[in-house]
Structures are given as structure tokens and as C-alpha cells.
Amino acid sequence: MSGSKPDILWSPHHADRYVICDSELSLYRIGAVGTSEAKAGALPLSQETAATLLAINSDTPYMKCVAWYPKHEPECLLAVGQANGRVVLTSLGQSHNSKCKELVGKEFVPKHARQCNTLAWNPVDSNWLAAGLDKHRADFSVLIWDISSKYSPEAVPAEKLRLSGDADSGMVVTKPLYELGQNDACLSLCWLPRDHQKLLLAGMHRNLAIFDLRNTSQKTFVNTKAIQGVTVDPYFPDRVASFFEGQVAIWDLRRFEKPVFTLTEQPKPLTKVAWCPTRMGLLATLTRDSNVIRLYDMQHAPTPIGDETEPTIIERGVQPCSESVISSFAWHPSTQNRMVVVSPNRAMCDFTVFERISLAWSSTTSLMWACGRHLYECTEESGEGGAAEKDIATKMRERAQSRYGHDTVQLWRNHLLAGGNDPHLRSLWYTLESLMQQYTEDLEQRQQGNKQSLIYAGIKNIVKSSSGTTETRRCWKGSDRPTDVAQYHSEERSLALQLCGWISRGPEIDVEPFLRSLEQEGEWERAASVALFNLDIRRAIQILNKGASAEKGDLNLNVVAMALSGYTDEKSSLWREMCSSLRLQLKKPYLCVMFAFLTSEPGSYDAVLYESRVAVRDRVAFACMFLNDNQLPRYIDKLTNDMKEAGNLEGVLLTGLTKDGVDLMESYVDRTGDVQTASFCMLRGSTAEVVKDPRVQCWIENYRNLLDAWRFWHKRAEFDIHRSKLDPSSKPLAQVFVSCNFCGKSISFSCSAMPHQGRGFSQYGVSGSPTKSKVTSCPGCRKPLPRCALCLMNMGTPVSSCPGKSDEKVDLPRDKKLAQFNNWFTWCHNCRHGGHAGHMLSWFRDHSECPVSACTCKCMQLDTTGKLQPSDYV
Amino acid sequence: MDLHILAHRLRVTSISKSGLQNYTHPLIKLIFLRNRTRCKFFSLTETPENYTVVLDEEGFKELHPSEHLQVECSTWLPLNVVSNGNASSSSQAVGVTKIAKSVIAPLAEQHVSVFMLSTYQTDFILVREKDLSVVIHTLAEEFSIFREEDGESVPVHSQDACNGLERNGKEAHHSTVHPVMIPQNQFCVMSLDPDTLPGIATTLIDVLFYSNSCKDDAPAADDLECIKFFSFSLIDGYVSLVMDTEAQRQFPADLLFTSSSGELWRMVRIGGQPLGFDECGIVAQISQPLADSDISAYYISTFSFDHALVPEEDIVSVTDMLQDQRKDAGC
């Protein structure tokens, strides 16, 4: 203050008013820009708010400090501390308020004049006003005035007043209620909110002292340099901040001997330190000639118990009005994190400190973030109407629940388990199905001592090894007109056609069953084109007619059939010319490729081969029939690479479950994140090279982690079982053994192959086979096994009753399994007590302590995962 | 009660009246240009004989040696008694009186020479640095002693100090009772917001440096009755002024702070001839009887003489008391 540095003060009760004080007091009202209240004279404070000057008071010169009366009534009453130590009550824009009138102008005069450094109203007894003064050799530095007190009882001799200025003794109070702090200066003070009779003073002699007004001779005090700007955290009445030059000290009044911690020192001296009144543990500090307000977030910093722990404080700086230097700032009393800052030239700025945003993903698809006091949740739209595709995590979750990937007999059914609406998955599982059939067949062949196996190799590898291709020129079926179309045959090509699903196993090439199945599914165009590619125009036309006459059939198919029937192989016919130009306008890809085939030159079928809307398997089958030994591998290579790049699962037909297949799957996972499909698919690629690929292992581990995160523990277990069946090397080794107390030998040798991955609360099967279930003594030394803490029977005895059995009676084998589990050894790693797993489970359903009577071990609470419930049920 | 040994290291100097013109530049710098100097402790007292300047080593660098500058050769340390917030002090008396029994008398008994400097804000007891161990040892019983270093108050324990009862190697000689003089002028002790110091700069310069020229107008006959005495100190940012009512009239009334009762003080000047710095017990001689009768006092030592200020209304009893003391000594 003192003329040059304006300070700012919010009204304690009117959230829209504040006072700027430098050489005079100016009252402003803050409002939204553009409202009727904001007139032309309003000063813009931010993009939304502007301030209007309401009143100016320049009655009190030599202002040193100002404090706003804390109660509602009288409003706008201010106490001003002056350079000569007098405290004057004044008001702004309240001329009609009679309540105020009595008080305004009242002066409180110390015995010895010196500067008034600080003022503080008592928060409870609002008549009390504490003034902190500079030191005087014979006087007190803290005077507590009662503003309601009548004028000084002893008449001051008039001539003695000549030094103290005005003679208007009517409004002058000279006798304070309390006097504290002799022979010292008071630089700052505050009332303690816990006890309104207590006052915290900061004196010149480098100490902080707490006085209790009920017994002023006693005080608690501590020596420190940090004696400026003491201020109590409004959210934590024992936490106090004070500063000295560039350093802020945070005190805990309960452990007042030394600061709890000090904040990093600023190069320039501090001018103001203020707790945020609307946000817990947020301290704002300002240094001289700075344009940055530093914020210290002590939210996550509970007062440490020991001396060693250094609490964490998050520090950051805000720059409310870009370049201009800040003279002072004030937090808004009620709006969260809002402050007004004022620059030395009285330019003001309304500013809201933004909270850091913390964000958390749930293991399901929802996302949450917190900003200030608001918590936002973002979840996937679950309604069917949602146009957006479901997130892959949701899909995987649903698929895991529907046992996707677990149908090992009819692989193709897995795409139905996945929902049946993903063409890629459909193609993938059909491919795997045919690959598997091929594989089993191969096994048979191998037993017959046939040539090297090509299992799961994919068409790419199959056609590479193609040899002995024969070229034939067949006639159109049902006519003896020869075609100039060359067809190629070999054993490998037939194998490829089988994998593509066009022909079934066996020596003869017959597409009729395939056509019929397509007809059944209503894929008329596809069936027609397959028929055509097999040079059977008549069959193709027949199929189209059938399609047109079928329920919901497309009558246009008849038109196509008509067009087809006009086929002529004359190179320059009108038919050819029209077909080759008009076919491009056909929307259905299969119709399009039919005419492309008919109109193309022999040996160049690019229009068919590169029609991406046609299924890969059909294009590959077509290529196997019509491309020669040079063209075919080139085409397959190119197509494979395209598929790999796109991550198109149809390409698995080409790559098989080989290294190429992993590459393809990698780009599929990159594109979709579907580690589930990748895991299940690659587990089938039983060659070690594929399963041990680090990428595959990574997908598998991630999928297991996902299942764990969803608490799908049963699904995880099922997956592990599934995995160990397909990849025996993934079987984990036994990690826990039960050894006999007496002889030290393992009592579970008979079932050491039954692993259980360690948890805090370990269980272990005693007996693998029912015949040995009565073993109640160590097989090594014949000493009895320990007793179950609950039934007091020796371990090894079957558990008689199992609570909660009734609702599990549906499935008998499962019931049996559960009963076996109930016999398992279970013990606490901490107290070593235990018993039958079934008994322990039912005990800890209602208890937290160990069942052994003298033992107070909270076994169940030590098990962090024990309390979590799986979210899937077997 | 706490006793603080302040961090300042002080020198006591004197500038002769005739040599003042050689020192006006450093003095003005030390008084008015606080930002230009690192001096934290400055006191200037004008007496009829000379100007006494007490200042810390930073300030002392500004004073260039010359024949007009006399310097006491030792370094002095200021002590300050803090009442430690014991508001229940029964005595209304303030200043030297308050510490007469607890500090002045014990130090006098241990033959420690003290240099007193009272200000509006507090009383400083200056002791020689070499006497510090004796001081600590003597006062440790009565006070918690703190030494201020780099802004921190560090407790000092008497064990740290020398244990031997070093008596300064001097014999006590209580007998010397110095003559006193009681001038007629009334004094006031005041303070000032340091920020408003520029506002009174011209007046202050006038009173400090040109007092002799003004004095010419006054009749010479008054010289016996009134004494020229003006003290200005600027210590740790606090201003203290001691002047007679005549000088006070030259200052604007609303800028100077004083007590609301507007009390006035009379002076007792101790010493017929310059007292020197080695004699001890002088302050005790005066303060002891004042303390006995519970009379407040300021005490300002200068290079040549000591000055005690007592309340106007008590001057008669003080005069009587001092005369009694003189008689006792004479017996």
C-alpha cells in the first residue's frame, strides 16, 4: 500500500464486491459482461466479467492495512490501520445505513504512536479487532480493541492532545481491551479458528507466539525467521503458513516446535501468501515484481507423523494477466479457485485457476476424470440404437462371456460365439476349420507314410511347392463348343481349392455340393459366379433364375441371367462390347466379376483377381484354376502382402498359421486391438515357432491380464486350460508343495502335476484320485496329517457338508469337482493355521479372524484378493 | 526475560563541531538514502561539545578518517532485553529503569563498561565485544540469552563463555560521583514512519547541521539554562528522534509519532568533564535510584557525557535524590 502498491480485498459476504486500497479505498462490483448492470464505465476484467466502480473513500490517509468486518451487518464496514498506529473505522457507499453510522469514524488510538502493521477481526466475537503495531520501548505491540466500547472514560487533558492531532475526542477510544507483546513489534497476526480467544502473533524478535486471552501471561512460542503474513488454512485450523523474504514455512500448531516443512525459496521476497478459501490445501504466493502466482497443492500431503517423511507438494505457477506485474491478488470467497489480481497501475484481472485433471480408465470401457469438485464419467453407449460400433474391449468382454474361442471341435462355430456379425471373424474361423480338417487329414496321410506335411501352412506355401501342373482346355458344360480358356490342375491346386471350400475332399473335382450350400444360404450371385468359373453357364443361369424367384428375390437376377445367356465368344460382338462397359455399373461384385471373366482375354483376369469386394477365398480359388505356374505364385504373394498390410483376417487362408500369419495378425491387432482373437487363433498354430513368437506370447499375456482385470477369473482359468492343451509347454510348474511335518517328504507326490498359482491364501489338492482320498496320514512316515482347525479331523478326510451346495446341484460333475476342492489343504501364510478349503471358505464368509481360538490373526484381511468377487460364474 | 545479542558490530565515533562540514555527505547518505547503504544501525546525537555517531561497520566505512573524527578503538555489541511478552510487569516505569536492576547493576559489579542508547522503540545496551563472555556469564542466570546470527536467534549458554571470573582486571571504585547538570529545556521522544522521512528532510537537515547559525539569534544568557541536544537514530528501519520542544515546533505536527499523552521529559546530564569509555558504574549510579523510586527514564550516552531523560513531573524528586546521593558520597 502506502500509495504505490494497491492491495485487494473481497467482501466476506457479497461475492460480487471487492475493495482496492492504495492511497484511497475504492469499492467495485463485479458482474458479467453485457448485463444491464455493467454500464459503459465498467472495466473489463476477463472475457466474461467486468467491474463497476461503486464508491471511493479517501478519508483515511496514511493507510497501512485494511480489514473487512466479517459479519453480515453492518456490511461494508472497514477497519483501516494507519501509519501512526491509529485504527479508524470507515465505510464505503453505505451512507444510509444507520447501524453503520455509529461506528464509522470511530478511532482507536494507541498510547504511543507507531505504524500499524496488521489488523484482524475476531471471527466469532466480531466486536474485537486486533491491531499489530511496530515496537515501542514502553508499550505493547498488539492491542485488541472493542469497537462497541464507549469513548475513553478518563478525559484526556486537551493540551496533551495537541501532539496527536484532532481534538474530536468524542469518537476516540484510547483504552484497549487487551494489550499483548511488550517491547516487540508485531508484523502479522491472526485469530485461531479453533478457539476464538486465541491469537497467533508474529513478532520482530523472530518468534511466533500463541496467546490465550484468558491468560495472557502464558503463551506458546517458537523462534523463527518466518514472521510475516501468518495465515490459517481455512480447511485445516491447525495448519498455518508464514513467510520470510522468499521462503514460506508451513506450521502445524499441534507440533509447533518447528515448521512441518518449508516451500522452495523464491529468489525475490514474497509479498502475499493466501490459502484458497474454496479449495482444500491450496496455497497461493506472490513475490515482488512478479507476474506469476505460485500455487502449492498440499492436497495429498497429510501432516507426517515422523520427522523423516517429507510430504509431497505439487507446485505450479499461473500467469493471470500475461506480462504485467502483479501487485496483489485475492481469492474469491465462494467461487471455486477464482481470484482477482491487481497490477501496480490498478489494472485488474479476473482469473480462475484451473485444476489439474486426473483421469482413470476402468477395466471395462468407462472413463472417469475429475476436475475441481466435478467428477465426469464417460461410458460407452449401451443402447442398440448407438450407431457407433462397440469398443473392442466391450466386444471382447461379451465374447469372453459367450465362451468365444473355446469350441475346439467345430472351429467355425466360434464366429457365432463371437456374435456372428463380423465377416472377418467368420472368414477366419472357417479358414481355421478347413485348415484343421486339412491337418487331421494330413496326419492320416502321414501315417500312411506320404510326403512331407504342409499343416496349417496356408495356400501360399502350398502353391509354392506345386509341381506337375497339367493344362486343359475344357468345353463349356452342356455344349461342345471349346473354349480358349486354359485351366490348370495339380494336386496342390486341388488342395488349395479344398481349403477355399469350393470342392470337398476326394479325387474328383465337383463344385456341386458347394453350389448347393451357397444356394441354401441365398448367396445367389456368388453361386452363379462359382458355377460360371467352372464353365457351367447353364447352371449359372439356373441359379440366377432360382434366386429371382426365391422369397425376397431380386428380379433383376433374371435380367442378368438373360444377359448371361447371350454370351458369345466372338471378339468383336456387340454383346462383348456392351458387357465390358456396362459391367462396371453393376453394384454386386460377383455379377461384375462374372462379366469381367466372360469378356476378358484368356490369361489376363486382373478384373476378377483384383476385385477387392470379392471374397479372398473365391479369388484365390479362381486364381488356382486359371493362372499358370508363373502367374499364380506372383499373384498369391502380392495378395498375401496386401492382406498382411491391411491386417485382413481373410488373408489367414493364404498365410496359414505361420510366421506370415503372425505378421498378418500383428497388423490386425494393431488395427483393432483384438488380442482375444489373436490369442485363440495363434494358439492353434501348434508349431513352436509360431506360439513362441514374442508377439504371440504378448497377446496371450495381455488377454490373460484383461480377463484378470475384468475379474473373469474362471474365464482366465478356462483359457489357461485351453492354452495348456494346445501348447503343453505353457503349463506352469507346481509352485507349492505340502510336506509332512515329521518326515519332511512331500505328501502330495501323487498329484504334483496339479498346479495352482500362488495366492496369499494357498490351496492345494491333497489327493488327485478318488481312491487315495482317504489318506489321512503321511504316505512317507505314516504319521497323521494336521487337523482341520474347524472340524478337527485329520486332513485327508472328505468334507461332510458344504454350505451353498444347494444352488449348484444342477451340474453333477461340477458338484463333484467342488467337493474335491473342499478337501484341499488351505492355510494362512501368516499364522500357519488352516484346514479344509471348504470349511475355511465358509468360516471366513462371516469372520475375519483365524478360527483357532487363541489366534488373532486376521487371515482374510491379509489376503488382498480374497475379498474380491469374480465377476463371472462358472 | 530474554536478552538478545544483536548481530550489529558497532563503532562509537565523534565528529567535532568544526569538522562537521567534512562529513555532511556520508551523514546525509546514511540518514536519507537507506537503499544506497547497507548500514542497519545508525545513531547521530548532537551535543554542545560534538556530534556522537554510533554506527555499524558498514556505515563506518563511509566515514573517512580525519583529524575531526575521533574513534573509540573497540567494537561494541548491542544488547536488547525482550520482556518475552510478560504483560504482567507490575512496574509502569519503562526504559533504563526497567533493566537497571537486572542488567545495569550486575554489569557494573562485574566492571563491564556500558554505553546506553535509548530510542523511541527500545533501549540498547552496548558492551565491548571483548567483555561479551563476562556479560553472558553474568546475565545468564537472569536471562535466556540469544545471539542473532543471519536472522536466526540462537540460544547462547554460559558454559560456552569463559568460566573464570575475569574481573576486567580493574578495581572497583564506587566513590566517584559525577557532577550533574539539569538544563531547563523540555524534551520529547518521537518516531516517524521511515517512508515519510523525505517529507521532513529539509527540516531535519536544518536542525541537524545548521543549528549553530539559528542559535545566534537566541540570547547568550540562555546557554546556561538550555542545552543543545538533538538525537536521530535509524536502527533496523525504525526512526527515533529526541529533541527539545523548540526544535519540535519546526516539524510538521502530523508526521511525528509520539505518545498520546504528549509527555515531556527533562534532562540530567552526567559528568563535569568527558567521562571516557572505561569507567563503569556511571549508568548504574543514576538508574539505581530511579528504579528505586520507579521513575521512567531514557538514557543516551554520547562520546563525552551521559544524558538521562526523566519525566517532567518527576524532575524535582530526581534532583533531590541526586543531591542526597552526592551528600552521601561526600560523607
UniProtKB/TrEMBL annotation, chain A:
GO molecular function: zinc ion binding
Gene Ontology biological-process annotations: cellular response to amino acid starvation; heart contraction; positive regulation of TORC1 signaling; venous blood vessel development
Keywords for the protein's UniProt record, in alphabetical order: Lysosome, Membrane, Metal-binding, Repeat, WD repeat, Zinc, Zinc-finger
UniProt KW Zinc-finger keyword: yes
Boundaries of every MIOS-like alpha-solenoid domain copy: 396-626
Main subcellular location: membrane
Subcellular location per the Swiss-Prot or TrEMBL entry: Lysosome membrane
Gene Ontology CC annotations of this record: lysosomal membrane
Domain GATOR2 complex protein MIO zinc-ribbon like: 740-860
Family of the protein in this entry: Belongs to the WD repeat mio family.
Protein name, UniProt field: Missing oocyte, meiosis regulator, homolog (Drosophila)
From TrEMBL, chain B:
InterPro entries documented for this protein: ACT-like_dom_sf, CASTOR1_ACT-like, CASTOR1_N, CASTOR_ACT_dom, CASTOR_fam, CASTOR_mTORC1
Domain CASTOR1 N-terminal positions: 9-69
UniProt keyword ATP-binding present: no
Keyword line: Cytoplasm, Phosphoprotein, Ubl conjugation
GO molecular function: arginine binding; identical protein binding
Source superkingdom: Eukaryota
Ranges where the CASTOR ACT domain occurs: 75-140, 261-324
Gene Ontology CC terms, in alphabetical order: cytosol
One Pfam family linked to the record: CASTOR1_ACT-like
Cytoplasm is among the record's keywords: yes
Gene Ontology terms describing biological process: negative regulation of TORC1 signaling
Quaternary structure and interacting proteins, as annotated: Forms homodimers and heterodimers with CASTOR2. Interacts with the GATOR2 complex which is composed of MIOS, SEC13, SEH1L, WDR24 and WDR59; the interaction is negatively regulated by arginine. Interacts with TM4SF5; the interaction is positively regulated by leucine and is negatively regulated by arginine.
Job description of the protein: Functions as an intracellular arginine sensor within the amino acid-sensing branch of the TORC1 signaling pathway. As a homodimer or a heterodimer with CASTOR2, binds and inhibits the GATOR subcomplex GATOR2 and thereby mTORC1. Binding of arginine to CASTOR1 allosterically disrupts the interaction of CASTOR1-containing dimers with GATOR2 which can in turn activate mTORC1 and the TORC1 signaling pathway.
Name assigned to this protein: Cytosolic arginine sensor for mTORC1 subunit 1
